[in-house]
Input
Amino acid sequence: MNLSRPHWSYSAISQYLRCPLQYYFQRVLGLPSRTVSGGLVLGSAVHAGLAEYHRRLKAQELIDTAAIRKAFHDCWSERESQESVLYREGDTRDDSLQQGLQLLELYLQEPPPDEIVAVERRILAPLSNSQGEYLETPLVAIADLITTADETLTIREFKTSGRAYSAADVESSLQPTCYVHAIRETFGTDANVEYTVLVKTKTPKVQRIRTSRYAADCGRLGDLVQAIQRAVDLGNFYPVESPMNCATCPYRQPCRDWGHGSRSPTELVSLDIPREVAACSPN
Ligand code: SF4
Output
């Protein structure tokens, strides 16, 4: 699949909605990020461990815990070699690492998913609006795990989170809509989505929430992407400052410079900062 062609993804859509200026720095100027949050590194490493586990299940191979832990550690090291990791106040690297391994081991104690169809599957699908008109730029969705039961596909999305998700978190998210739309376009069938949330509370727990999306939701997704595309084409990029957005934003300095004309986009791109490569990052 050619992923070098322009495409939309859930993370691009949600980034624009969260902070158009951050979208501009990352996806229009291509500014590398100097920092990454400890939570993101933990999430990436847990995803890498889960993918190794699910691949072994799918291939009916021996479940080798050492190999699963190795995938986790390799991903962690890779992220550390690329960016400076910022831990939250009171968190340390060792605590976070242990917490990630604990979450992974907790999931391994759950009944294993059966009827695995695909692991970390990238799906490229055209987007269409509520009028049925196709958009120029397609959508890429990367499903953590796809299973089937009674001829119904389920996309399983894994999250690591400091708190349990509410039903409203899942119902209002565009991510399940992206998955269901991609499956409908590619396989011509409906699908359910199940969130598996690995909750990083003092006593970690596994939370599962199922959700559905319908044709009207997919059309609305197309309408929204079309509106964002228009805004991007017009150069509508502005900061949305909030503690939630800015605390771990890697572009705080360029953001401070924004609007003062002190640095041109070319100057920003030439800043001497490490390249961002997120090969093991979750979508
Ligand atoms: S610092 Fe905040 S407002 Fe500025 S780009 Fe980052 S998220 Fe947006």
